Fold this sequence. Notes:
The chain has helices at 3-37, 80-86, 94-101; strands spanning 51-55, 61-66, 109-114, 120-126, 141-146, 152-161, 164-172, 178-185, 190-197, 200-207, 219-226, 229-235. It is of the alpha+beta class and 242 residues long.
Amino acid sequence: MPEHDASARIGRLEQQLRVQRQLLVGVALVGAVIGLAGFVKQEPSVIRTRGIVIVDDKGRERILIGAPIPAARNRVRTDLKRVEGLWASRYPDPKQYMRWYADYRHTMHGMLVLDENGFDRLAIGDSTPDPNVGKRIGAGPGLEINDAQDFERTGYGLLTVGGKDRVTLGLDSRQGTEGLTLTVRDDGHTGVRIDGGDGQAIFLGTTPTGIVGGKRDPITGLLIRQGERDIHRLSVDSAPPK
């Protein structure tokens, strides 16, 4: 056998031995880790952070998660120039609206979903943001869904008002006013209210304090109102109006 062939073969054998030693060391290390893992208490992975911003394929902020949620450059609610142009002009006195708007709450602890135009569409968390038509009467956890112009159309939550809780499911009209409301309150009020506009309202349930916008007398039954006048009242504690 030529000398150079023997040297090449010896080199290949030495290389194979080095590879085998490395593999054996790797297998030994893996075995040691697996063996030690049986004696170590396993803990779930935890990510701790103040906020997360998820953007779409065009770089626009679309999902804000945090406690509180992070700021977003394209969010309409926090851009006063856009607010004035989009919403204040709907009111007879735009400047008065902007003064009211200065006290509205736009932050929250939880998750907020924005559309491609920067409008709030879905809020889930603790003390969700105020609607763009006025402040909430109380704070509490909930879920709110807005239309394409950021006007609240439905929501479900637990509000604390005057130290008492009330669970409410609301469906709003396109004007931003309540259309149908299902409410259970700590003060004994439990019922469904339907608002048809022009002062028309139907209430079915029981309330010791009277319905909002109506007489403050108790009712357990059915009440149909037109403005301040009872059209029909059927209650276990009173006779229908004559």
